[in-house]
Amino acid sequence: MLRICRVPYSRAGPSAGGWKPLRFDGGAFHLKGTGELTRALLVLRLCAWPPLATHGLALQAWSRRLLGSRLSGALLRASIYGQFVAGETVEEVKDCVQQLQHLGLRPLLAVPIEEEPDSAARTGEAWYEGNLNAILRCVDLSRSLVETPGPAGPTLMQLKVTALTSTRLCKELTSWVREPGASVELSPERLAEALDSGKDLQVSCLNAEQNQHLWASLSRLHRVVQDTHERLKRDAEAADRAGLAFGVKLVRGAYLDKERQVARLQRTEDPTQPDYEATSWSYSRCLELMLTHVSRRGPLCHLMVASHNEESVHQATKRAGRLCCV
Questions:
Q1: Containing structural domain, residue 61
Q2: pTM score above 0.70
Q3: I want to staple 154 with a disulfide (CB 3.0 to 4.6 A). Which of 149, 261, 264, 318 is the partner?
C-alpha cells in the first residue's frame, strides 16, 4: 500500500535520506525467520488454489464443526490470519510497524468492516455503533504508534465510510448531489459544520428516517475524526477555495467477482476489465493521470496506490520519485 503526495525537494537533487526506488530483490527477507517465510510460501500457494478461493467460507465453517472453534481458530491464526494481520496485541503490532519502517515503508492500519451493497442482513444503528467502537480502538492503537514515527512518516489508518453509514444512504446522496441546489445543502462547509458542532443536519431529498440516520452517521464520523479537528478545518477551507479537494485510492483487481455478480443480477453493464492485459493498461493509465495531478496540485491532491501487482508498484514508486524529485 503506497500513499503518494507531493513533497518538498531541492534543485540540487534529492538528499541522501530522500526517495529511493523500491526493490524486490529479497532484501526484506532477512527480517523474517524461516518459519515466517515457510508460512508465507504456503499461504501464497493456498491462495492461488481455485477451490480454496471459491469455497473458503464453507471450508472454514466445516473446520469449526470438525475441530471446534478453539483449535480451528488456532490453525487460522497460524496460517492465513497470521500472514495478513499485523498482530493481536499492541506490542505485536508495534513490532510489525517497526519492521516496515526499517524498510522505508509507511504502515497503514485498516479496519476491514463495511456494509455489503444493498444488504438487508445487517441493519439498525446498533450494528454501526459496534463498528464505531472497533474503529475507535484502532484509532487509539494508531495514535500509540505515532509516538516514534519512522523515516517514512507517521502511521496511516484506513476505514470504510460504509462501516458507519448505510450504502443506500450514500447512493441517495450521490444521486441528489447532481440536482440543482444540492451543492448548497451538501456543501463541504455545511457538512464540516455538522461534524464539528454535532447539530442535526436536514437534507430535503431524504425522509425523516433517512435524515435521522444521516445525523447518526455524521455523529459517528465526528467521534472518529475529532482527533483531527485542525486537519478537518484545513480540508474544509481547501474545499471552499477549490470547490472540492481531490483524493483517490486507486485499487487494482478488488471485488471482481462481486462486481460481476451484481452486474448480472441487476442486468447492468459489467464495470470490470475483461482480462489481465486490459486491467494492466487501465490501471497504468489511471496511475499516470493521478500522479501528474499530484505533482501539479500539491497538498490539494492525494493518491493512495493499492495493488499487489509488482509491475504496478514499480511504476508508482519510479514515477513518484521522478515527479517529486526532478
A1: 27-85
A2: no
A3: 149
